[in-house]
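Students often ask why we bother encoding 3D structure as a string. The short answer is that it lets us treat folding as translation between two languages. Here is a chain of 124 residues written in the first language.
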Amino acid sequence: QVHVVESGGGLVQAGGSLRLSCAASGRTFNSYTMGWFRQAPGKEREFVASISWSGNSIYYADSVKGRFTLSRDNAKNTVYLQMNSLKPEDTAIYYCAAGYSSTASIHQSEYGYWGQGTQVTVSS
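And here it is in the second language, the structure alphabet:
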């Protein structure tokens, strides 16, 4: 069983920054593809960013490209989502997920382990 825990959410003004962290348990963290998804009120959960087990492949949603940066530290079993130039439309619950796909995946179905989510609120 893989345990996924997010942290780092909070309230920030538009234009500000936050860094989300996601820790995943397990001796084989360096074999997990890791992804971030978000769900805004009244909307479906959507893809934000993902990173392959090696870190060589990273995908971003068009809505966050150029503003968000995803990285991983396999020695610490942690991935980081640096979010800059935040906008009110980035307000959502952010979920971290782990999976075993061969590359960074944008599809929720590729991830078998999910965290509880962390709230990000961006005020205008």
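Translate back mentally: Residues 95 and 117 are 4 Å apart (CA to CA). Keep this in mind for the problem set.
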